[in-house]
Structure prediction request, 555 residues.
Amino acid sequence: MTAELTARERDIAAGEAGEGSSMAMRIVAEAARLLGAVRLIPIQSAHIDGAVYHGDSGTHFAEKLVADGAKVSVPSTLNVGALDLTGCSKQQLSGHEREMAGRMMRAYRQLGCQPSWTCAPYQAGHRPAKGSDVAWGESNAVAFCNSVLGARTNRYGDLLDIACAITGKAPYCGLHQPENRAARFVFDVSGLPSRFFDDETAWPILGNLYGREAGNSIGVIDGITKRPSEDDLKAFGAAAASSGAVGLFHISGVTPEAPDVETACVGNQAEVINVTSQMVLEAQRRLSTAERPDRIDAVAIGSPHLSLREFERLEVLIAGRSLAVPFYACTGRHVLQGLKDTGSRRRLEEAGVTLVVDTCIVVTPMLPELAGGVLMTNSGKFAHYAPGNTGYDVLYGGMRECVESAVTGRPELAETRSP
Amino acid sequence: MTLKAEFIVGESKAEGHSLVLTEPISFWGGVDPKTGEIINVRHPQFGANIAQKVLFIPATVGSSTASTILLELVHCGKAPAAIVLSEPDAILLLGLVAAREMGWTTPPALRLPAEHHGQFSGALVRIETDGSLHGS
Prediction:
């Protein structure tokens, strides 16, 4: 099926607004065809996940758009790049790769995108209104945008997101259509002991489990006993969007389209998944790939990027001690200024924390090369991607356990986490 | 055996040994864009290489970076000879659309329900311009 373009859209595709816009419109139109959309709709904003260097092809693609005169036509934030342009941390890219990664980040700026360089744009002031249509990339940002903000976006791939930003258009399908946003299953957590939600890892672990159960379907979580914070929702969405193709979730009584289960389901005959402690325990075990390690070699937190609030907690947990292993705390430049203002940056760096800004440890080579290395993290997303992208095995624990382990260099896990 | 599939991107002939994935895959973090090797240790086909294969994918999961990885695989000459998907996955396939816009030689993608993928396991697969798949 081919999408019906308006006369103006056809003119742009044919090159009337320049070759860059023409290429972008052709890509959006092809996407519409693949997605089965019958038309395009205007979008209010975009979040662009295309500026990470994975090889020269991405740089060539962005530079072709620049050379052909393309510019974004809606406010567009940028997801992480492959380099920390603030100089807080060092990446291992060198020579040709470093040059191409830098050229790529520059090309996206030249297209008119804002240099936000964060995977948590929703905590850097980019918060589209409920019900508005946007085109966002980066799976955790998509999940947050749809679920927590109630704005409407599909999971845009990193070449399509910039094409949408340039044209100001997106295929009308999927989660842009209100009728596709209803829950089809209930993820009932009322059977879990209420103390489960007191643990700081409750939401990322639940997210991992939810993502596996959901696949690309939409569910509503029911039966929570404690209201999640925004950072909890961020961690849940990131974990869920790593283990499954989750673009939208609902939480009864919490997220904007789910005042209650019935409203979230809008008449769907929803299947019920009764979540048990055993399922949660298995999800938690799956997050670790290291088997009973006797040491850890590094800690990484901040996927998605840490908020100021999370940094405050980190500082409290470190409590003036020195860290024995490399400790990477990934965040965006929207947080860095706050850390500087309070003196927190200096104190964290003196304790041994490496602030990683504009980028993160799984999108660019940063960790020391170490065969059999063990990386500890509190992030469901890092736990999912670190083994493939860094070569390190992963040990999963909460931020408190990460800090305690970094102080001693050995896994310091709560009793409940022993395998 | 011969089965009819439907082209979803490109309509060209292709040939290669099959690689049938038995679980969904995320290209980012799942496939090395420089070599085509499957690098997700949790995936059943961990260690296999998708380059020049007729790649059967039951479903895709995870990151929205899949299109860039596929674009890079095409650029590096490590793309599959063809991709056979149970359902069109726009995020992944846009890698092929963009590669075509860049003027690079791009493999075709076809749709075939996942329940038929297994019969091509271990076969040399030839794809004809009418979208039929011959396994031998």
Q: What stands out?
A: The radius of gyration of chain B is 13 Å. The interface with chain A takes residues 8-9, 24, 26, 28-30, 33-34, 39-42, 59-69, 71-72, 74-76, 88, 90-95, 97-99, 101-102 of chain B (CB under 8 Å).
